[in-house]
Specification:
five-stranded antiparallel β-sheet; alpha+beta; single chain; two-stranded antiparallel ribbon; transmembrane helix; flat; transmembrane; membrane
Length: 234
């Protein structure tokens, strides 16, 4: 015996499918609208925060300058005459001249002289100091800063250059990744500022390196603001 199904009403099935598709599109539209609204709110909050931060920085910067000026004047001592130059320890050799003379007087196969800065020799004379740092990418990865070079700045004719180049630094200038001085400074105190180059100097015949460290002092009145303050040399 054979059973036959009644003929399918294709028009009703098409209508039902159309209604289902309409509801599905409506649900998708509601979800998309919700995501757009949330995204717009987040963007709006970020824009408002940036605008408020920009507006707040104007009086905060003005107060920082005023507070710093007041602190400087309070700690300063008035003088009637400028101090006289020390003829025995005068700063004579310009940096550009010392750079040329110092770099021309030494030759290292894997190293070079870095950025110069003012330091003192062990006898008290002023000098230009240089880090003896690795030169080239491969050496910057595997070699160490090899010491310090001091170039006397008190005389143009008999300029003395002292090289302390037999002391490898475990952390130093021109060294990449975790051995570099910049990385270790950030790791030890991320929020501190180091606006000056490293100071290379010698004490008891041994080379050292120090960074001038700048921190912040908070003031709550009339509105919260900060002023830079000296925090030593790590």
């Amino acid at each position: 015996m054979l059973w036959f199904l009644p003929p399918l009403d294709t028009e009703d099935s098409r209508a039902a499918a159309a209604v289902a598709a309409l509801f599905e599109e409506t649900d998708r539209g509601e979800v998309n609208s919700s995501v757009i609204v949330k995204l717009a709110l987040v963007v709006g909050v970020i824009i408002v925060a940036l605008v408020l931060a920009g507006l707040y920085s104007v009086p905060a910067n003005a107060l920082e300058e005023r507070t710093l000026a007041e602190q400087t004047m309070a700690e300063g001592e008035p003088v009637e005459n400028f101090p006289e130059m020390n003829a025995d320890n005068a700063r004579i050799v310009p940096r550009s001249v010392a750079d040329v003379q110092s770099r021309g007087s030494v030759s290292y196969r894997q190293y070079r002289l870095g950025t110069s800065d003012i330091a003192r020799m062990e006898d008290g004379r002023l000098a230009w100091s240089y880090p003896i740092q690795p030169d080239g990418f491969r050496n910057m990865l595997f070699e160490n800063q090899q010491g310090v070079l001091l170039s006397d700045m008190t005389s143009m004719e008999d300029q003395e250059i002292q090289a302390f180049d037999d002391t490898p630094f475990s952390v130093g200038e021109g060294m990449l990744l975790h051995r570099g001085s910049s990385w270790n400074l950030r790791k030890s105190d991320f929020w501190a500022k180091y606006n000056d180059d490293a100071i290379e100097f010698v004490h008891d015949g041994k080379p050292y390196m120090a960074y001038p460290k700048t921190g912040h002092e908070w003031h709550l009145t009339p509105i919260p603001h900060t002023t830079p303050t000296w925090e030593g040399s790590p």
